Amino acid sequence: MIYGYIRVSSDKQTVENQRFEINNFCEKQHLQVNDWIEETISGTKNYTKRQLGNLLKKVGKDDVIICSELSRLGRNLFMIMEI
Q1: Active site residues
Q2: At the topology level of CATH, where does 2-82 sit?
């Protein structure tokens, strides 16, 4: 299963650019996103309190999560490394 993960931190941001980047990458790699996870929440929130936490609980060994950039997963390197 391939998941596309999109996070915007405010209502003023849109998901279209991130979705475009993920789709563009997948097209070049001959991949197809099976499920999209979109959320509007600050990256300062712990990932366990976001949809990302639920996603991480259900992904399996061969599943893939694709995001447009690492900053979508967390606010800083320490948060990202914890994931």
Answers
A1: 9
A2: Rossmann fold (3.40.50)
> Alpha helix (H) ranges present in 1-83?
16-29, 51-58, 77-82
For 18-64, write each residue's pLDDT tens digit. 999 999 999 999 999 999 999 988 777 787 888 888 999 999 999 99
d(CA 82, CA 20): 27
Residue 37's DSSP bridge partners are 5
For the chain, the structural domain boundaries read 2-82
Vertex 17, ends 49 and 82: CA angle to 5°? Answer: 30
Decide: helix, strand or coil at residue 36: strand
d(CA 43, CA 37): 15
CA–CA separation, 23 and 25 (whole Å) = 5
